[in-house]
Amino acid sequence: MAFDIAVKRVYEPAEASDGQRVLVDRLWPRGVSKEKAELTLWLKGIAPSNELRHWYNHDPERWEEFRRRYAKELDGNPEPLRELGALLEHGRVTLLYSTQEERYNNAVALVAYLKENE
């Protein structure tokens, strides 16, 4: 199944082309109101565990190991993946994250996981 998925920072303005906007962080982003976020869903359960998040600490040298550990967590937690899959059946979904790191974040890792397990 092909899917239409995008990734962007929650601090960037919402656009009609975003489709359904899904926050995939465990913590609510600082300084963003619920109105400004314009979320379809806050999918906390799909975010990396607090332990993994703290271990990774956005260290690019830990990226590949982070992705491996995160994939293992996702494998053991199918319900949030089903929720996301249901949204993807209805068109574009934009995964939102809060970190300043644009290349090495859980939303990017999640997209890679979804593509590998398509």
Automatic annotation (TrEMBL):
Database matches in InterPro entries: YeaO-like
Superkingdom of this protein's organism: Bacteria
Protein name in UniProt: DUF488 domain-containing protein
Native source organism of the sequence: Ollibium composti
